């Protein structure tokens, strides 16, 4: 099971974490990945200094702009499930 986690701390919230979460949820739905991805959210991941929303994929830190969330999912998440 792949662990996918999006930060919902205040800094990431301002950078658009809600939109990243919505995009990921839509893609998990579209591609029927509920049984393959454990999708969670987290409070501040101590990555606020980076541009973009903090996201971890199996514990590895990434920073995702809301407008590139779909592309990120396709390259970094889909490739691993
Ligand atoms: S609020 Fe997301 S890393 Fe700090």
- Summarize the biggest pleated sheet: 4 strands, mixed
Q: Oligomeric form of this entry? A: single chain
Low-confidence stretches: none
What is the molecular shape? globular
Number of distinct helices: 3
End-to-end Cα distance, whole Å, is 8 Å
List its salient traits:
Glutaredoxin; alpha+beta; 36% helix; 27% strand; 81 residues; 4 strands; binds FE2/S2 (inorganic) cluster; globular; four-stranded mixed β-sheet
Report on this model:
The mean pLDDT is 97. Strand 3 and strand 4 form a beta hairpin. It is globular and about 30 Å long. Helices cover 36% and strands 27% of the residues. The longest helix is centred in the first third of the chain and has 14 residues. The chain is of the alpha+beta class. A four-stranded mixed β-sheet has the order 2-1-3-4. The protein is built from three helices and four strands; from the N terminus they run βααβββα. It has a single domain, classed as Glutaredoxin, CATH 3.40.30.10. It binds FE2/S2 (inorganic) cluster. The site of FE2/S2 (inorganic) cluster (FES) has 11 residues, from helix 1.
List the topology elements.
Layout: E1 2-7, H1 10-15, H2 17-30, E2 37-42, E3 53-57, E4 60-64, H3 69-77
The structure holds FE2/S2 (inorganic) cluster.
FE2/S2 (inorganic) cluster binds at residues 7, 9-12, 44-48, 54.
